[in-house]
Amino acid sequence: MGILQRNFYSRATPSVAKDLLGKILIHETKEGLTSGKIVETEAYLGEHDPASRAYRGRRTKISDLMWGLPGRAFIYMVHGNWLLNIVTERKGKAGAVLIRAVEPLYGINLMRRRRRVKQMKALASGPGKLTQALGITQHDQGVDVTSPSSHLRIEEYGEEEFKVGKSHRVGVTRDLRRKLRFFILGNEFVSK
DNA sequence: AGGAAGATCTACT
DNA sequence: GTAGATCTTCCTA
After folding, report:
1. Of A126, A123, A125, A130, nearest to A108 (Cα)?
2. I want to staple A98 with a disulfide (CB 3.0 to 4.6 A). Which of A8, A39, A42, A87 is the partner?
């Protein structure tokens, strides 16, 4: 129980992606606290992954984070949506896990207000939806999710049995042969 | 300047 | 269930 330590993130990216399933993502703002159980993730590898921001070692102001300290938030905008990733691998090696969907736990009324949708299922069942629901923006760029004092952090949950499903990543123009999307089988908050 | 980007919503068949 | 419009930043020309 408790918060996930840095050594959790300082491992091979696909393992981190799979092991983040069932953990709790928490975000605190002035409006209140919201949290959800992670039910879907994707692994983005380093230099050899054409879908990765680190492809061919391409460094920009924000992709630089991917080579940095594991366990920090890495956020970027795609089609008008903020997407939340967590940096993986040891410092100096690029990698990140995209959080694609969470099952709402606390602050559901606040999420409803932010998202303006009726269906619970539509609250956070997608990478752009969950950042809206939890109020995550570029303002959280680089935040250390392993720190108990962070307003954005990830904690362990109780023991829980579930089966992990795998597939190719969603929406990427050039994917790898390997299946790098992970999700909790049968969970209704998975994006598709 | 202009286009690309791990997406989402709407309005239909 | 699917196609199409629209979303907003950042990066490259």
Report:
1. A123
2. A42
